[in-house]
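In line with agreed milestones, the collection of sequences with tokenised folds has grown. One record among many is set out beneath this paragraph:
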Amino acid sequence: MSDVEEAVTRAHHEEWARVVAALTRRFGDLDIAEEAAAEAFATAVERWPADGVPPNPGAWLTTTANRKAIDRIRRENQRDDKHKEAQMVYDDDPPEPVGAIDDDRLRLIFTCCHPALAMQTRVALTLRMVGGLTVPEIARAFLAAESATGQRITRAKAKIKAARIPSRVPSAEDLPARVTGVLAVLYLVFNEGYLATGPDTDPVRHDLTAEAIRLTRLIRALMPDDGEVAGLLALMLLTEARRTARISANGELVALDEQDRGAWDAALIAEGHRLVRERLAAAAAGVAPGRYQILAAINAVHTCARDVRDTDWSQVLALYDQLVRLDPSPIIALNRAIAVAELDGPEVALAIVDRLAEALAGYHAYHATRADLLRRLGQSQQSRAAYDRAIELAGNTGETTYLTRRRDQLQ
């Protein structure tokens, strides 16, 4: 990849949400914002190789996207009043510097996560508009068809426009009711960054994990006493702390039990542990923890262990038992089975996993977990078949490489 191509890719990762958010605030139309942003990046692909990468790519992209948006308004609205309105916006309201539009991204995410939209639609729209993921990437994250995912995003933008849903941060009294959906979306954005589903992307997308953490910090500043906001931030920090140890030099996923724990980010772990301790104190005072707080506590147990052999699996299982009561989903049951395998053995865990076959038939991690349990039980032929299915379903390049190596090590 050339230096210019790398610059365009980096700018897309870093500036997409800024540009879309600024255009949404200015023009109040997600379609115009998305199309103009996409045209600006296409223009960069054409012009930067000849003109050179601008000193401030974000400002260049924002200015170019604004011009593209106004050109579209002029084309679509030939009436004098609309033409003059567009001219006035363009001439009298120069683009804000990139560093001044961070709050626009927070407005954008609350717009994309509006309760008038179904939860899956909120996630898809946020991944597209804030995360900059393509429709195929979002479809893989959902285990859904690309056509259905694209239609879902198109309908969501149309609904926001028709209902005149404003691009703003909710008022203080509305925040508690709105934040649950936002946290769910941010967690999925973070997960897409931490284990990217696209086969043609980096195995780990730090731009997405960093953006999810940044937005969660902003929401925590708005709602400092909300336990689930604190829990999600702790969960993200403790997960992000392991990022550099998660991918090997040859691009292969490194499982938790094989990671170099000395490479973990001590500062992020310390901050995450501090947040978990705060929530434990609240639980001791009678405030029941929510899903993210329990997940953060599980991650705290893992990151407290200096060696995988020091992991307190009894505590991990107890936390999963608590989590299952809040969220009896098959994926939580699958993760709980991994802890069961460490305490009661792979045979007991495999019986639990096999009961999830119908619910998780299309989920690569189900087959990968089952393959590992069968490997530990010495059932190499069945393990190989399970690895083959996991490899077939996995979109992440690092994970595919890891699963292939594990399969090829079978006797």
